[in-house]
Design brief:
Blueprint lengths: L10 E6 L8 E5 L1 H7 L3 H4 L14 H8 L7 E9 L5 E10 L9 E8 L5 H11 L3 E6 L4 E4 L1 H7 L3 H4 L14 H14 L1 E9 L5 E12 L5 E10 L1 H23 L3 E5 L5 E4 L2 H6 L3 H4 L10 H7 L9 E9 L5 E12 L5 E10 L1 H21 L5 E6 L4 E4 L1 H7 L3 H4 L5 H4 L5 H14 L8 E7 L5 E13 L2 E10 L1 H32 L7 E2 L3 E8 L7 E9 L2 E9 L4 H15 L8 H19 L3 E9 L4 E7 L5 E4 L4 E4 L17 E5 L4 E6 L1 H4 L10 H11 L5 H16 L8 E8 L1
Length: 746
Amino acid sequence: MFNPDDGSLFNLLIVRYAGGDRAPYIAQANEAARRLLGYSETELAGRPLSVIFAENSLSPWWEEAANQPDNLIDSRFEAEVISADHRRIPAWVSVLSWHERTARPADYILQIQPIKSSDDVFVMRRVVEQSASAMMITDRHGRIEYVNPKFTELTGYAAEELIGQNPNMLQSGHMPPALYQSLWDTLLATGQWQGEVRNKAKDGREYWVYESLSAIKNRAGDITHFLAVEEDITHRKAVESALSESEQRFRQMAELSGEWLWEQDPAGYYLYSSAAVEQILGFTQQQIIGKHYTELLTAQDKATQTGYSSNQHAFRALINHYRHRDGHLVLTESTGLPLFDDSGKLLKWRGVDRDITARLQFQNDLIESERRTRLIIESSLDAIVIMDADGIVTDWNRRAEKMFGWSAAEAMGRPLVQLIIPQRYHHAYHQGMRTFLNSGEGPILNRQTEQLAARRDGSEFPVELSVSPLKVGDSYIFSGFIHDISGRRAAEQQIRQAEVELAIAQNEIRIAQQIQSTLSPAAAIETDEFAIAGLCVPADKVGGDYYDYFFRNGSCLDIVIADVSGHSIGPALFMVETRSVLRVQRDESVTPAEALGILNRFLFNDLNNADYFITLFYMQVDLAGQHIRYANAGHPPPLLFNRPQNRFKELDADGLIVGIRQEVEFEEKSLPLAAGDVILFYTDGLAEAENPQREFFGLQRVKSVFQQNSHLPPGAIIEAISAALKQFCQRTRFNDDITLMVFKWR
């Protein structure tokens, strides 16, 4: 017979279960067990087993016993045993069915092994059993050997339903077979695998897990088991799916919308842009992604709107000034919303920009149009009057108060006919109201007409009237827009008068042009000795430049170029006087210096009173003596270029501008003419002409073009200089009169 006290070092109990209603009881305990529990031999014998075991501690044993009809049990479980002094001792309990010749079939041997707090196996078991992660252990062939409580909770299967099965019983059928093949290949090759898997629970519910698989090896390095740790990510996947669907709907709406929808990271860099950005700013979606929002703004907006992405506050109806890809200005109305996570951290910005360029342009054009109209007709806002079907005033705005002299309090509630309609039109008014109420038609409704209105003091004035009927229920109200056109009538009269005066002025200008056209030589002169030609381009319809050349006698040619300050009719008339004074001396032996002195004395008073002055260069060519004499009254010196010697000389002489002092001494110089001499006469408008970059054409360019074309006839030289000037200035009209004249000695 088995004797537990035969020197055994284990804590052993013999437990007997007689069946029926009686609970299992302790038949015998060895000395080691009695010491552990603090009982004497007689205190334990015959007592129920529940005396030393905590509640539910024996459940694993009894569940196994119920499933083993022959009581052949061999199991091990964790339990708490209670000592005589009521201490709870965690322990491993091993149960073994005891079948000896004298033993009864229902006798069991219980071995109690206390668990120390430092026991790694105990700690690991607790960790696994209480883990929030689902854990499963399989053998090397993939048969399930162990699952923790979280795994059974996740799958809905009991542990005994899973033990011995293959994990593929949990597959949902929605994962590609290649995934599982890759899983095993990776696990066997590296010893581990991680990934997301879609499984199916016992009740058919599908769930997602993030699974970490590890191969467990023995000391020889052979795989003995596999450990699977699973985190339930079903909720996260549902949230991600919902977010993905939301993002997809957002992007679909963004692509369909004509507005520019965008997303930015917390620093203000674009993460997403709808296709509408190309229509609004000319950039593609790909060109926008990664740009900072300030890169697209004008310089002014860059300085004022840099802080919007950093203040983390939503903004609405913000006006942005962008530069389109082609450079033109684009205005948008922008709304932005910051998106935060649960901790309050800014995730990104989401917003929309609406192109309002055309709308603002229209508004600005409308305002400008109204401003111009008001300046012309000295008008203001309309008077707005509303009355009911009985002709009683129900609304009367401030402009109506000013226009008619009745306050709103006085006007409302009174018949309109008594307030603004002259007495002689009362009958026609009443007749028109009756006609409309009976037929729905009226002679002045829904159209703009001009009428006479009466002020409070009885004075009458013309108005522009627009009346519209509006049906409200079974009745009508009438809205009237009344515009005082007294100022417009007066303005129209002024405009008609201005048109008459303008026609007269234009006729006078035509006369002045005709006069000025007769001042310049009719044609170029070409002889065996010389050739001369000229050109005058006025800045206005009538200019202040003048040139002339004429024979004083058979052997003398006089050449004149002049410039009167200013443009238009006044300077042109002074040119007429200048020409007259010079031409009248053609039959006299007058030198250039003498001619300038006579001209200065003759025009001094007229120029002084009119605040004008004249620069003038006068030259005489002695054809027989082959030399020139010249004098200058403050005019740009002509350029003499000798082609054989390739040399320039400026023809200048001392002399004050005409019209500054009454008595002036003019210096006179002379110079022999050589074969190939070419002289360019010009006014200051040539050298001072500007290009779009505000650069002067300058004397050096004049010389360069003159030198390059000096071999050509005078007319061709002038055309070359004129073409170079237009190309430089990029226009054909200039701010100042420009006159050119070329004399060429054979």
